[in-house]
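Before the break, one more example. Copy the sequence into your notebook; we will annotate it together after we see the structure.
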Amino acid sequence: MRIPAIIATLAIVAGCCCIPSKPLPRAKADPLMAETLEQYLKAVADSAEDLHSVMVLQHGKVIMEKQIAPDTAHVMHSVSKTFTSTAVGFAISEGLLSLEDKIVDLFPECVPEEPQERLSEITIRHLLTMNCGHGKDPTGAVRYTDGDWIKCFMEWPIAYEPGKCYCYNSLGTYLLSAAVQKVTGEKVVDYLDSRLWQPLGIEKPHWDESPAGINTGGWGLYIHTEDMARMGLCILNGGKFCGKQVIPAEWVREMSANQVPSVGAGLNEEQMKEILAAHPDLPYFLPENSDWVQGYGYQMWRCRHNAFRADGANGQYIIILPEKDAVIVTTAFVKNMQQELNLIWDHLLPVL
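Here is what the structure looks like once it is written out:
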């Protein structure tokens, strides 16, 4: 963790009206909140976590925050997926896509000459829920190449019947981004401008692209901590922000629901079952210990404490806690993401 003195920047801007272009309203910090934040930051430091920022919101106001690294647009890694899912939701609400659309129909020009038998079964729903049938995520083998990423996805071995096996798949999210661009004629970052960025008061961000000029979808978005908080508040409030319905309410419900069983990235569901059969007490796979086996929605993870989250490598989180009417946001560079969540549950959750 970077070391400036552990001082909470807890502002006293109570009663601010909600205007998208203005900073989010802040609530006056009581002594318990200030003490809690200090204890949390000390625990982070003791755990050698490189935390860059944390922001806690409850009842629509920022009640705790600390910006440790410079407040520049931060790479979101897989938090990007939740924004891609939101773009898919908009396209579906506008009648341009459906959950049952098949990728072979959306991208017929990319279908191999001798396609795999199960390729024709893969739908938008399968991509959203990480259930396309791949037994291993192809992203690492593809993302740094100059080839056709969609065709590479279609050529990757389909080990399971689509819809039957969870396997985290960032390249699948890239296909969602490509699908939105195909049916709207706009890159996701542009398509979201009038639909999401402007209504939430977020300056149009940078989003990395593939060699084909398609936003990477599953990664590559850069936004600020407060931008993450705006998205979290919108999702917490059923898609509303500043009293306006921004994201369709039904999509928010579906996106955040427990759609399928989940396991951590790097494994598929069948591999986890084999490991559990041999080692039934591994803590990483026990529901009481792990936030990676609570279920998966449409590019969002379920958490313990009846929460759900947008989740990005190295500790980028937008955590939504409906029972507490709260949102917790972090940016970081950490290796142990479960430890990062555990510190949040141990220190920040109890005071909400």
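The radius of gyration is 20 Å. The chain is about 35% helix and 15% strand. Try to locate both features in your own notes.
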